[in-house]
Amino acid sequence: MSDAKIHTPLEDAQGLLVGTALVALSVHLLHGASLITGQIAGLSLLLSYVSGWSFGAFFFALNLPFYWLALRRLGGAFTLKTFCAVGLMSLFTELLPHLITFERLDPAAAAVLAGVTAGAGLLALFRHGASLGGVGIVGLYLQDKTGFKAGWTQLIFDACVFILALFLLPIATVLYSLLGAVVLNIIIATNHRRDRYIAR
C-alpha cells in the first residue's frame, strides 16, 4: 500500500512555482548559449531562433492542442495545474532575461546545467500532478496506461526536434544541445516512478 499523501493546495502551489522556475532557468541557460532542448520547449526555442519571435509565446501556443487529451485522459485537476504551469513558465521565461544575464556561458556547462535544472523542475511538477504540457502529457498518459517510461516518450520526440535542428543550426550547437537533453531524460527516466511516489 502506498504511503503517498494528497498534497494540499498550498503544497501544490509551491510545487508549481518551484518547478516552473527551475525549468524557466534551464531555458534561460540554453538561450544564453544559443542551444535548444527537446519536447515542446525545444521546438519553441528552435522556432524563436529562426523567427525572432518570443519563446514564451510559442511555448504557450504550441501547448494549447494538448489540453484536450489532458482533460479527457488525465482529469480536470491535472489539466488546470498544467495550464497554470505552462502560463507561469511562459511568464518566467519572459522575465528572466531582465533579471539575469551571462557574461560568459560555456555551452557544455550550459547544456548539462540546463538538463539538471529542467529535470528537477519537471519532477517537482510531476509529483504535484502537473506537467509542462505537450509531450509531457502524452508521456505521463502512456506511462500510466502501459508502463512505458515518460522519459523515453520524450526522448523519441526529442529525436525529431534534433533532426529538424540539424537543418537549421550549426552541428556543434546541436551536439551540445543533445548532451543537455540526454541529461534531462536520464533524470526523468530514473526518478519518475509511480511505485515510489504517487502524487494526487
Automatic annotation (TrEMBL):
Protein name: Uncharacterized membrane-anchored protein YitT (DUF2179 family)
Topology of the protein relative to the lipid bilayer: Multi-pass membrane protein
Residue ranges of the TM segments: 15-36, 43-68, 74-96, 108-126, 155-188
Signal sequence range: none
GO cellular component: plasma membrane
Localization per record: Cell membrane
Pfam families reported in the protein's UniProt record: YitT_membrane
Highest taxon of source: Bacteria
Keywords in alphabetical order: Cell membrane, Membrane, Transmembrane, Transmembrane helix
Listed InterPro entries: UPF0750_membrane, YitT
